[in-house]
Design brief:
With 163 residues, the chain is α+β, with helices and mostly antiparallel strands. It has one domain (19-160). It is built from 3 helices and 4 strands, in the order αβααβββ.
């Protein structure tokens, strides 16, 4: 009894890939992976910018909320407050306005950047502008600048004295 066993395929067999097909597939895979890998730095930058924008918006909102704690007659004293230093308008403030302005300076320039760590220098700054529109109306504008952000955050509110 004779059995016919085939040890190797013949060269004309069409199953499998040629070397050229494997190289073309590898190049397509490399180009696709490099494209995906190039998106990661852009994503990280956008995440960092989003964090900076969040700090800027939260700082501006906090400043505008604090202005509501100041007596209406004293709101105009905050015009020109710049949180980059304790000199200038901040140095001339007294009482509640002084404490609040110094807190703003700490909040904007030394925001806590690590989740549960110690406060790290952030380097942001805020400028408060108060417009005395009338005897019973004040417009307060806060402009926050954060290093690394291409734009500034500007928020305004109107404060009215009813009686």
């Amino acid at each position: 009894m004779r059995t016919h066993r085939r040890i190797a395929r013949t060269l004309g067999d069409g199953r499998g890939f040629t070397l050229v097909e494997v190289l073309v597939a590898a190049m397509i895979l490399v180009v696709a992976l490099l494209t995906l890998a190039s998106m990661f730095p852009v994503g990280y930058k956008q995440i960092a910018d989003g964090g900076r924008m969040t700090v800027a918006v939260a700082g501006a909102r906090h400043i505008l909320e604090d202005v509501g704690d100041i007596p209406f007659a004293n709101i105009s004293n905050l015009n020109g407050v710049d949180t980059t230093s304790n000199t200038g308008v901040i140095a001339g403030l007294t009482g509640t306005e002084s404490a609040i302005a110094r807190r703003w300076r700490y909040m904007i320039t030394a925001a806590e950047t690590a989740a549960w760590g110690t406060p790290q220098p952030f380097g942001g700054s805020a400028v408060v502008t108060v417009a005395n529109t009338s005897a019973t109306l004040r417009t307060v504008t806060v402009t926050v600048t954060v290093p690394g952000l291409p734009t500034t955050v500007t928020m305004s509110t109107v404060i009215v004295r009813f009686f």
